[in-house]
Amino acid sequence: MTAAAGAVILLASTAHAQLGSFNPTPGPQGTFAIRGGKVVTVSGAEIPNGTVVISGGKITAVGANVAIPNGAKIIDATGLSVYPGMIETGSSVGLSEIGQGAVATVDISEVGSFNPNAQAFFGIDPHSAHIGVARVVGITTVVSRPTGGIVSGQAALMNLAGDTPPKMAVVPRVALVIELPRSGFGGRGFARANVAQQGTADANRVRQLQTDSLRALLHDADAYGKAHAAYAKDKSLPRPARDVVLESMLPALSGQMPAIFVADRANDIRDAVTFAEEMHLKPIIIGGEQAPAIAAFLKQHNVPVIVTSVMHLPSREDDPFDANFTTPAKLAAAGVQFAISTGDRGSEIRNLPYTAGMAAAHGLSKTDALKSVTLWPAQIFGVADKMGTIEVGKMANIVVTTGDMLEARTDTKYLFIDGRQVPLDSKHTQLNAQFKDRP
Predict the structure, then answer these.
(1) Whether residue 301 has pLDDT greater than 80
(2) Which of 52, 83, 211, 306 is in Cβ range 3.0-4.6 Å of 286 for a Cys bridge?
């Protein structure tokens, strides 16, 4: 090795350390043939001894008798299982970071109550340590959302591979995030009845004022959109001033973008759906702890739920121990469309497969548990034509595992995101290698 080459490598290593990135760079898109494994397509029957061909970032062939293109890199998956990548829909990945000897990055919220123009896409850190540990369990895509205020901003649908947000983005603006004020509620016990009643009245009064402010903002945005549409057709009209806040709400008002409503209690879920229909929004409920109590209502209004409470302790003292474990099974039985999420902002989204596995252990079928982290989230966010199953023409987000992807004892052997093979290193593996032989 020449001195110049050694200097280049040293500089590259130093730059990598300075960036603080624990995520190895995926390889280039190429032609691959994953051969001999059990192919779990999700959309159809399993193929016990199948082949999946990847080329140009897409799945180009799937089946038991598939011709392998000349020059393809063959991956022997004998004894292994092949799955579509999982989608975590309730995170804020890339918007906040763990402490690493300095103040951690926290970009998940903006000041003020109404920030529809705040886009998570622009705050994503591709070098977040949360990314590597999430993808090694089979998570290839996330919905990363801002939080805070009443209108938090716009969530982004991102693949977990790429060194810039544009390279990671599947849908940079996938949903508007709204958190309606919670309804007031009182305490327990006769001694606190009057205090609770007064507290509930005050809370509901503030809630009504905040909801009215949001309603007025949406009406203003609707009028703004109509004014610009009229000007586009007739240039003789006065040209409307541009307003980035109002303009950012137009995709949600026109139905091009859904609105995520944060709600757990039955009353709050019902109010969110009613408000969304009043304002002609397409609601998605995130939280949904008490969604089974109004499952018929959700089914009637065709509202999907992102369930984030599966691993939570029961919130009420008289609930059974498995109240949250069984939420997905109850929604499935009622015919409500849902996805399962860890509900974590970043560090614990790696538990997504085990969260879905817990639901499968408490009444949800294994088939539906797998769909709840692959196909169904893709359908909820309008990208089922791109991902969520192993089908020809879809994005090659593929996971090859030693067993059932939703079991904790399963290891990931190969991972592809957008047709690029991803090294299975992370902060955890690097720290283990660094310290495992320490005396």
Answers:
(1) yes
(2) 306
- Single residue among 384, 408, 431 that ends a domain in this structure: 384
Residues 69 and 203 in one domain: no
Q: Which domain holds residue 392?
A: 19-85+388-439
Asked whether residue 344 is assigned to any structural domain, the reply reads yes
* pTM for this entry: 0.87
Q: Any residues with CB less than 8 A from the CB of 219 and at least 6 apart, and which?
A: none
Q: Which of 90, 41, 159 is nearest to 339 (CA)?
A: 90
Alpha carbon 263 to chain centroid, angstroms: 16
For all residues of the chain together, what is the average pLDDT? Answer: 88
Sequence-distant (≥ 6) Cβ neighbours of residue 116 within 8 angstroms: 151, 153, 154, 176, 245, 248, 249, 252
Identify the H or E element spanning 313. Answer: none
Residue 419: pLDDT over 80: yes
How far lies 243's CA from each of 119, 251, 256, 393, in Å? 16, 14, 19, 39
- Sign of the dihedral through C-alpha 246, 111, 176, 21: positive
The pLDDT of residue 101 is above 60: no
Q: How many CA atoms within 13 Å lie on the side-chain side of 308?
A: 20
Joined tokens for residue 277: 């229909």
- Residue 4 domain-assigned (yes or no): no
Can you give the CATH number for the domain in which 221 is found? 3.20.20.140
Total domains present in the chain = 2
Spell out the SS3 assignment of 190-242: HHHHHHHHHHHHHHHHHHHHHHHHHHHHHHHHHHHHHHHHHHHHCCCCCCCCC
The pair phi, psi for residue 155, each rounded to 5°, is -80, 160
411, with CB counted inside 10 A (0-12, 13-18, 19+), is: exposed
Q: Is there a single domain that holds both residue 372 and residue 421? A: no
User: In which residue are the tokens 């121990």 written?
Assistant: 321
Bridge partners, residue 260, by sequence? 177, 284
- The residue-averaged pLDDT of 326-337 equals 98
Q: Look at residue 7 and tell me if it is in a domain.
A: no
Do 425 and 302 share a structural domain?
no
In a domain, 5, yes or no: no
